[in-house]
Amino acid sequence: MTKGYLIYAQGDLHVKYAVELAKSINDGLPITLVTDKQINTGLFERVILVEQNTDKFHVKNRSKLWQYSPYDETTVIESDCLITCDLGNWWRRNKNKDLTFINQAYNYRQEKSNTNHDRKTFVANDLPNLYVACYYFKKTDFTKKFWDLVYNINTNKIFYEQFLKNVDPDVPSMDRGICLAAKLLDCADSVSYDCNDPKFIHMKPYGQGLKNPNKQWNTLLGFYRTEQEVFIANYKQKGILHYIEDVV
Amino acid sequence: MSKGCVVFAFNNEKIDYIKQARDLARRVKKYLGLPTSIVTDIDVKDCVFDSVIKINDNSYKTKKTYRNGSQTTKLSFKNCNRIYSYDLSPYNQTLVLDSDIIICNNDYAKCFRDRRDILLFKDAHDICSPRDSSEFDYVSDTGCDFYWATCFYFKRSKKSKLFFELLKHIHENYIYYKHIYKIPSNVYRNDFVFSIAIHILNDFQKGDVVGHFPCTLYYSLDRDIVQKITDREIFLLSEFQNSYIPVKIKDTNLHCMNKFALEELL
What is the ipTM of this complex? Predict the structure, then answer.
């Protein structure tokens, strides 16, 4: 069984993020980059070229990543993430699973995030709380069925019209796509990674538990890093850090 | 292993902290069966104390607004000395208490049976529960967890010594740490210094380098007016939304922040 990481990045900025992410993964497993432009760096085992997507969240390409993976077991991590912990537990706990998504976000203080501000659509539609920023899969029939449905949701507006109300913003998004798919397939529990190791640190500004948040967290919270460590507002970050803003 | 309580009492222009310390020592003896040593900067001859440790006050020259209900007064605030608790305490196991804590039960005795080296309160409870107490969650809106230096326990060990050495370092470089942790208050607070030290010793994360005190800390604000104190009961008027709620607590320890009202009743 081969194991490896898959990162998707379109555009120079996200390719830069992908490089930083690849540098932060230090468990020796291979990393494949799915992108729209050739890149020469020794960090990636493979670079798979795909067509450029023009929609905001590149949902077509990202809904087909399971097809591109060269590995039997794959972990997909969004490019604007850094890994600041050991992912051994993630691989061990997922060994007997087909597909799992992170289901709990934490803030920079390692407290559970209140994501209601950013997930109004999820609340309004009683969607499960899954995050596409980090997920695991094997290439099984179930995984195919799941991602085919996500692709259909993200490319056919009728799904949104029929199954989702009060959608904000009114464009397809990967998080909404996977959560609606999990709801329709009634598999939210089985695809939830329900363990806090690794922690998923989600730097949505309004999920940080601040009394006076700002639209950009990095205007309030200092960010710095060394070769091995990342700090936000003097808190050492241990986990999968989804930093979102251009701080690296 | 010798056990005892240490209280820091440095009088200012108006407030007689030594008078508060006397009452505290009496209650510590009654409820905890322990001796109390006082650390102060003036001569105190009083048999209520096990020992009097006289030091030169090393505080920053700061003033603080003291409240007595709705009235306010700006007075000197000499509060930088408890970082020397490890060096000054005559005991192997030490409970350090603010002089404005009113002891009405033996809860604090539990700390002497705890296996951990250092104990502090991370959470405290306002006696007027509807009030917003979020200012005590973190040292600042973006900063680390808030711990109370009002009441803490330590036993002599390498870990405790390291902790107090770190407190001294933060004290000596307080302006730097105040900026790093974005502490808005201009008043030097032991709570901040202790909280920062705990954050650092926890490797800049949440952690358990210090234990949580095995009982509950209740406090009343300086906006509240203490009306009567007996050995077991405290009666207060608790301010809430510009009116007062009568509160009676019994067999419960209280950190009473209205020093004026407290002093009048002792």
Answer: 0.89
How many angstroms separate the most distant Cα atoms in chain A? 48
Greatest alpha-carbon pair distance for chain B in Å reads 50
pLDDT at residue A151 tops 80: yes
Residue in B135, B142, B144, B170 to test binding to A, most A beta-carbons within 10 Å? B142
CATH number of residue A187's parent domain: 3.90.550
Q: What is the CA radius of gyration of chain B?
A: 17
Question: Is residue A38 one of the residues assigned to a domain?
Answer: yes
Beta bridge partners of A131: A102
The size of the A-B interface in CB pairs under 8 A is 31
A contacts of B139 (beta carbons < 8 Å): none
The minimum CA-CA distance between A93 and chain B, rounded to whole Å, is 24
For residue B257, the model assigns a pLDDT of 94
Domain that holds residue A91: 3-242
Q: Say what the pLDDT of residue A107 is.
A: 98
- Minimum distance, in Å, between the CA of residue A186 and any CA atom of chain B: 36
CA distance A134 to chain B (A): 23
Domain architecture of chain B: domains with CATH: 3-121+140-214 (3.90.550.10)
Residues of A with CB under 8 A from a CB of B: 109-111, 210-212, 220-221, 231, 233-236, 238
H or E segment to which residue A34 belongs: strand A31-35
- The per-residue pLDDT for A157 is 86
Closest chain A C-alpha to B138 CA, distance in angstroms = 10
Chain B residues with CB-CB distance to A236 below 8 A: 203-205
Digit-coded pLDDT (tens) for B101-113: 999 999 999 999 9
Is residue A248 a part of any domain in this protein?
Answer: no
Number of domains into which chain A is organized = 1
Partner residue opposite A238 with nearest CB, options B141, B144, B205: B205
Q: Is residue A247 part of a domain?
A: no
Q: Is A47 a member of any domain?
A: yes
Task: List, for residues A153-206, the tens digit of each pLDDT value.
Answer: 999 988 888 898 888 767 889 999 999 999 999 999 999 999 999 999 999 999
Pick out chain B residues at pLDDT < 70. Answer: none
